[in-house]
Amino acid sequence: MGSVVLPHLVTGWHVDQAILSEEERLVVIRFGRDWDADCMRQDEVLYRIADRVKNFAVLYVCDLDQVPDFKQMYELYDPVTLMFFFRNKHMMCDFGTGNNNKLNWVLEDKQELIDIIETIYRGAKKGRGLVVSPKDYSTRYRY
Amino acid sequence: MSGRKDFLSQIAPENYVAGLGRGATGFTTRSDLGPAREGPSEDQIKEALAKRAAQLGAAPPTAYGATEKKEEDDDDDRFQDPENETGLFANGQFDRDDDEADRIYQDIDERMEKRRKSRREAREAQERADYEANNPKIQQQFADLKRSLASVSEEDWANLPEAGDLTRKNKRTKTEARNRFYAVPDSVIAGARDSTQMDTSVVDDGSTNGAGGDAMDGTMTNFADIGAARDKVLQVRLDQAAQSGGADSTSGIATNIDPKGYLTSLSKSELKAGEVEVGDINRVRALLESVIKTNSRHAPGYLALSRLEELAGKIVAARNVIAKGCEICGSQSEDIWLEAIRLSSGGDNHNGKVIAANALKAQPQSTRLWIQAMELENTIPGKKRVMRKAADFLSKSVVIWKEMIKLEDSEQDAKLLLAKATEEIPLSVELWLAYARLVAQTETPENAQKVLNKARLANPSSHLVWIAASRLAEETGKGNPEQIIRRAIQSLARENAMLKREEWVQEAEKCETEGAIKTAACLIRETLGYGLDDDDDDRKNIWMEDAQGSISRGRYETARAIYAYALRVYFTSRKLWRAAVDLEKAHGTPEALFQLMEKSVEAVPNDEGLWMMYAREKWRTNELDEARKILGRAFNQNPESESIYLSAFQLEADNHQISAARELLRTARQEASTDRVWYKSVAFERQQGDNEAALDLCQQALNTFPSCWKLHALKGQIYTSKGQIPQAREAYNVGTRACPAAVPLFILLSRLEEASGVVVKARSVLERGLMSSPKSAELRLEAIRVERRAGNIPQAKVLMAKALQALPSSGLLWSESIWHLEPRTQRKPRSLEAIKKCDNDPTLFVTVARVFWNERKLDKAANWFEKAIVLDADLGDTWAWYVKFLMQHGTEEKRREVVEKCVANEPRHGEVWQRVRKEPANKALGTEEVLKRVVRLLDEEEKGRGG
To answer: Which residues of B touch A90 (CB under 8 A)?
Structure first.
């Protein structure tokens, strides 16, 4: 359901434009495939929070089959990946999982996701490149 | 969502490379999953472009770029032609338009290729055929022969002969390889040389004879032998050291070395042929031999080698070497011939003459060789013969002519030769002058004059000829040097051959040394103003400097002429007059001095100094009346001058004309009533012993000049000498109040108090003085001394510390501190500190000298005394200390010399000196007597302190 409503980025150019065009807000892009079950779950959550974070974040989805350009560059080999950009800068977040570059599991708790986005936004506004997630996910998800 | 962004509904541009527009870079994670570090690289971009194009089903984007590139992938980018770079724009955006353009160009190229294809190919084939016909390959040339090889049978092949070395090429290369030469290394040469040589450094005295048997086979090491040999070497060394140490140092200890003789003895020992290390000579010989071998036409190499052989004592070898050198490079180097001649000398000069003949055959143009050949001849006629021959070859050589003339004893012949020489070399001024001198000696001055005239015609730009003419005129008294010099200057100026002013002064000085005083004076008169502007203010200084320079070189006549000229230009310059007078006083006759002084006072009648100097000179020559007259004239010119009054008074007083002196002072007091006149009057009366009159005058003087501290001091001293202590104290007190800055008054007062036993009061007086003049070293010193004399050493030390803090650069204070307040061991470090603080204080220097004296470092002490005297010759104490030092350690002459110098310098200052000088009883003493007294006083003081 969420996959339909959230704006899609259909080419690499659109992805770049989405990242470049936002001056004040955090850009959150979900890389994955719309037909994937994990993706659908994640998109549902994203759709739910989209309105609540609209003041400081904008959410996009991007189909990896449609836009394979970033697969190698961003190592997009997971079914679902959330990435964060602020003013054309890739924002990192220490989730405790060992991969600070992206959020590559399905996070279904809405408030947790909002907290993460807000934390990253605040850090980004202060000029940080890496923020620490409000919650440690190291024990919950395996790698 | 807050509104859709525009770009979401736009179409992406064609051939866009993702991430390129925003410069995205990848990242590496801990679980490195692929090459993600870089953003899209160049290759990636190109690949992406090609891939996309393939996906879209279109042709490859460029006719030249990506696809072609793949084929020649092994070609490195580095080898690209920079002029014609492919893929130059590969980084840019490549859109459909570019692609179309590329395609069109490709079409055109293909079409142009096709258009005249057949015709062009035909033409190219034709050209190739032509070329091959003109330049046939070897293969083609032998094509027909090759074809006939088909008919060669199996047997023929087997019977083919072996290829022999018909051209002998192989043999040649082999022999060449065998005949190759290599440079022999120096080590081999040295080894070969040493193999046949005897080593004489250790003399075998037979001590190893017994051990000879086991030493022979070399399997055993005889330690006893080694030890003996070492002892031997040491002994030789020691003997050598003892010898070179000199015969006078009998002690023979190695440390006992005479520092002056050491170096000379070193150089001497090095030059002794027998003592030079044989190894050194061998090494140098090998070097020099290789020099000669590598560059056989290098004369200095032969020279050096022959010198070496000579040094080694092998004179025959040296001669051989030099002979070889002469043979090889005799036509280039004179030196080698000269060396050969030198080496051949010994006994008769026969060999030398032969060599010289050869040398002159090789180099007939060498003056040096001719001279050498001449010197080889023993007899005068022989020498003459050689020189005459030389003159045939070298008729333009001044040296040859001069030698020839020197050989002639008869003046007539010499004259003839000179005439011939001047004819041959008219430009040699030297020869002309010699000729003229000879003519002047033997014939009439007129003839000399003629010679000089000829010389002048030949050398119009030579000033020497003119000067010689002038000197001739001066010597013979015929002709006017002045006129000659004037004409000389005119003609030289015409010829643009004028010397610089300084050079003229030098010429004048030279003339003076050779006795031609008039010429010197004329030269100065004519040339001193040359090259200087008439309105140049510096002229005076320049002339003064010239004169000073001449005086310092001892050329007083020249200096006199310079002053005369300068005074003619600056008639009223006091400075010049004084300088001229000083010159006359130091180096002239009294008559000349008086003449000059007379002129000077006429020129500058207002200069009191000149008048006084004049009077004093007259007085010194015991012409008292003259002196009086001069002073009278001075009074007329300067009616109110106190110094003239005072000098007149001094004149009378020194000649014991008491009443006249008194009279003069009285008029002076009326005419020029200054404090100095009054003070002198009082002092005069006191010296005469008339204390009452002195006191009276003093009182009068103080009414008009209450702020003259000298008058106060005099008054106090008069009272003291009369024994009226309270009055004296009163006088000093009034004085200190009237002139609080007068340091001596405070000191006098404190001494008075101290003498009457009231140290407390003395202390307070000095403190009062210090309040008004805190920077006075004398006051502080007196305060310290008061404490010291009262036996209060700690207090004195405290005061000294304070004083040194306030006045760290006072030599007086330092001296006192070093000498009286420091323990003996501390004196030297303290003096060092003091010298660092104040490096130019004569008092301190004397103290340092005395410290050295105490430590018996007499050289240093004398040195420091000299330094102190140079620093301030007006300080009598320094002289006294030095004389005292010399009385103990100096020679009689040195002492006399110092005393004389002291008298000449007339010192007037110094603590003890002034005390002795100012004593009324000592007024008639000369400087020398005062010096003696001061020395005696110093002695007494020292003894008193020592006791």
So the answer is: 24, 27
